[in-house]
Amino acid sequence: MILATLLGMAALVFFNRYLFLEPRLPLRLGRNLRTFLEFAVPGMLTAICGPILFSGEKSLAATLVDPYLLAGLAAVGLMLWTRRVLTTVVLSMGVFYLLRWLL
Predict the structure, then answer these.
(1) CA-angle at 2, arms to 66 and 80, nearest 5°
(2) Cα–Cα 20 to 30 A to 67, which of 9, 28, 78, 97?
(3) pLDDT band at 62, cuts 50/70/90?
(4) Whether 79 contacts 71, CB under 8 Å
(5) Is the dihedral angle over the CA atoms 61, 64, 69, 73 positive or is it negative?
(6) pLDDT band at 60 (very low <50, low <70, confident <90, very high)
(7) Boundaries of domain holding 81
(8) Do 67 and 59 meet the contact criterion of CB atoms below 8 Å apart?
(9) DSSP 3-state of 77
(10) What are the beta bridge partners of residue 50?
(11) Is the pTM of this model over 0.85?
């Protein structure tokens, strides 16, 4: 269920960005609105993932062997390296599941 929700949200975000940012579509947005939309998705992902990375059951869960924290750091590194949101989301999800399997 959680994986279906994440994939659904990823598809929704992708198609929203495609609809508004694809240059071949007849819909045109202003420069300021396009700039705002570029920062909306990383901001939303940060707001969703931030509490998950640092909160445990009832205390701070930031340990060096926590797959959530390590995958979050991998996501930050991937975003700085690729500068592509969709690529970062997909690869960091793969890193997270790999770490959960290994740890």
Answers:
(1) 55
(2) 9
(3) low
(4) no
(5) positive
(6) low
(7) 2-102
(8) no
(9) helix
(10) none
(11) no
Helix residue ranges per DSSP H, the chain: 2-21, 31-54, 67-82, 85-102
Q: Which residues fall within 8 angstroms of residue 45, CB to CB, at 6 or more apart? A: 85, 89
Q: How far is the C-alpha of 36 from the C-alpha of 4, rounded, in Å?
A: 28
SS3 17: helix
Say whether 65 sits in a helix, a strand or coil: coil
Q: Which amino acid is at 75?
A: A
Which whole number is the average pLDDT over 1-8? 91
Give me the amino acid identity at 96. F
Do 29 and 20 meet the contact criterion of CB atoms below 8 Å apart?
Answer: yes
Output the pLDDT for position 9: 92
pLDDT greater at residue 86 or residue 49: 86
Backbone angles phi, psi at 71, to 5 degrees: -70, -35
**Which residues lie below 8 Å from residue 94, measured CB to CB, with a gap of 6+?**
none
